[in-house]
Amino acid sequence: xxxxxxxxxxxxxxxxxxxxxxxxxxxxxxxxxxxxxxxxxxxxxxxxxxxxxxxxxxxxxxxxxxxxxxxxxxxxxxxxxxxxxxxxxxxxxxxxxxxxxxxxxxxxxxxxxxxxxxxxxxxxxxxxxxxxxxxxxxxxxxxxxxxxxxxxxxxxxxxxxxxxxxxxxxxxxxxxxxxxx
Length: 181
Description:
The protein is an alpha+beta fold and 181 residues long. The chain has a single domain, classed as 3-Layer(aba) Sandwich (Glutaredoxin). It is built from five helices and six strands; from the N terminus they run βββαβαααββα. Strand 3 (27-33), helix 1 (42-53) and strand 4 form a beta-alpha-beta unit. The longest helix is centred in the N-terminal third of the chain and has 12 residues, at 42-53. The relative contact order is 0.20.
């Protein structure tokens, strides 16, 4: 039997032990992030969503990952500085983990098993294929900035493709429904 998702060991970006249990009773939006990706500007929308909905119980959690074309090469300190200086990120960030492949972190093993398909899947996969950039098939994470929504009860509610931005109506409606539940 696998470890409950809330109990999987995590490390914050500043080296402190953590887990999703630290956010019990909150709605969580987990995002694998990267500093040197064409989607990096999504930090801005994620920060805006966090600022808008945190008081209602939303936590955006950033998980730097270097799985896709080496687009997150920096150290935790460099990533943290980049996020704060470039996008004024105030939502919790975690130490770099692997979100796909042979060394996938247990958190992402469980997330992808719980939600094998992403809402909005297709356009980015086609774009990457058109540029001969290899991708992993579903249920693997496609690219940086894929999003997983977890309800207050700790269950994975939805998964959004990397190119579904924080201001996309589908994501906003799912977040609002989770906050209202």
